[in-house]
Amino acid sequence: MNSSQSDASNVATPAAKPPAHETVYQTIRGQILFGELAPGQAVTIQGLVEALGAGMTPVREAIRRLISDGALMFQGNRRVSVPVLDKNDLVQLIYARKTIECQLARLATEQVQPSDISALEAIDTALDQAISSGDVAGYLVQNYQFHTRLYELANAPILSDLADRLWLQFGPSLRVVCGRLGTQSFPDRHKDILEALRRKDPELAALAMERDVAQGMDQIAQGLE
Amino acid sequence: MNSSQSDASNVATPAAKPPAHETVYQTIRGQILFGELAPGQAVTIQGLVEALGAGMTPVREAIRRLISDGALMFQGNRRVSVPVLDKNDLVQLIYARKTIECQLARLATEQVQPSDISALEAIDTALDQAISSGDVAGYLVQNYQFHTRLYELANAPILSDLADRLWLQFGPSLRVVCGRLGTQSFPDRHKDILEALRRKDPELAALAMERDVAQGMDQIAQGLE
DNA sequence: CACGCTCTAATTTGATCATATTCTTGGTCA
DNA sequence: TGACCAAGAATATGATCAAATTAGAGCGTG
Asked: Does the A7-81 domain belong in CATH 1.10.10.10?
């Protein structure tokens, strides 16, 4: 009868430890968005089991989720790899991002509070610092954070999920491009988005978002040669 | 020598039996789209294990995929259920369906072949028969088939995946509505889509698709009271 | 004689299952 | 009413089976 656990865990556990498969999922997801996994790279279950020190079942479940997300690809035989985008994929992603994320920007504008704007400004400041210091990984994280936080404001979980899915698909390619070009050439469209939020002008926000999306996807397109 | 399998199995096995988790996934997916699972219904792993006669691991993986698809919902504690749509969800689904599926209709129109139109007409005929005979399940299947086949023509896998995801989310609710109202009140917009395909007019196809989507989603909206 | 091809064996990896552990829940008793 | 307890379900592990890729040896040919 060890009291180490039962203590105060009855009514409300403040942070009921996340299941292993969730932790594994978030870890791999982060690696795909920001980190080690590059387009075309093969992903093995047993490799992840050893790398993450997790069991086999949680890793398998996480991989299934990521395949469903479009973040990983099931290669017909039993191989799994990070997808490589072609021109056609990119055109589709551009269309989807523009329609979905512009709408999220509109919805967010209608509901935004001053405190929300402050939080986004803080992220944008961190983003600027990452750019000026050439911190590619930091840039990617802050950029993703900015969009994610903005979309949370829209109170539109279904559209936000769709946007997340899209980010997982172009994330690896964006990382490769940024790794090649560095952070020097990013005019910051987020200032325009923030200005639109302050004015509470949905169409202006959508326009700024469209430019931001176009710019980011252009980077990737150039990276494809 | 039976040529069913061994023939030419060196280079490319034509139908190398799908893994169990794939089979289970497709089965549950079908049940969500057309069948037994209603919005709000609880789904247990062990229940599916017994119902499908499958092992536990494949069922778990299939459920993770379906949760990622938005077809099932993870209820915080370890419970899983079929999501219930509210008004806000429906508004988002309508926007996403219109933008994604209209674009798919445009792309399909640009690439459609006469044989493709014939195949779609055959599906539409079967759909009409299902409507006139009051076969709700048949209507749902043929309707889904019509859209899926059309989207395959667009040669846009990323957008098609997004559309599939959306269908999985409103599928259960559509089924409930159809079960209540029967099949009598469905003016068939597919004829307009087929006409646009024959004329190779992308914008006309997009318009017809928008009407079809609006009509279907309207049914669900009325079902929500 | 050397180069290349194919068939086979071994290793690596994925798929599945049986089982132990942990957590939620509903009932029961003080 | 509140807390404890038991039952059932989900999570997680490791082992086992099956499939596929790779490496290597043997054979044939230029």
From this structure: yes
